[in-house]
Amino acid sequence: MGNSSDSGSSLGAPAPTPYDKLPVKMLNDRIMVRIGAAEGERRSSGGILIPATAQVGKRLTWAEVIAVGPNVRSMEEGDRVLFNPEDRYEVEVRGVDYIILRERDVHAVAAERLEEGSTGLYL
């Protein structure tokens, strides 16, 4: 029958590869972002809890910039960006899910460094 020794790896967990600890560098105009835990449920301004399953047409999403490519001009690591969650590529790096965007897919940037000459909108 089969060999029962599987070198101690747990079922369902991928075996570590030599690439797991390599640094990641974004290229060209690409941006790596992470959506906060509040992607699911959210509250309205009146305090009503809106479940993640509620259908909202064309709702944009805020995320934190984790890494930027060398040709990105309008944002830096740590900024918050607004983008369409339907136009995204997802990737897992070291067990954490991230989203890869192009700079042109970002609709707005929120950062403290933008205070001078800003539009007057505050989050």
Question: What is the structural class?
Answer: mainly beta
The amount of helix comes to under 10%
CATH topology value of the domain at 30-52 and 60-112: 10 Kd Chaperonin, Protein Cpn10, Chain O
Major sheet attributes: 6 strands, antiparallel
Please identify, by name, the CATH architecture of the domain at 30-52 and 60-112.
Roll
Order of helices and strands: EEEEEEEE
Beta fraction: 25-35%
Shape: globular
The end-to-end span amounts to: 62 Å
Overview of this structure, please?
The protein is mostly beta strands and 123 residues long. The protein has a domain at 30-52 and 60-112: Roll (10 Kd Chaperonin, Protein Cpn10, Chain O). The chain contains no helices and 8 strands. A 6-stranded antiparallel sheet has the order 6-7-1-4-5-8, with no helix packed on it. A two-stranded antiparallel sheet has the order 2-3. The relative contact order is 0.20.
Task: Report a brief summary of the structure.
With 123 residues, the chain is mainly beta.
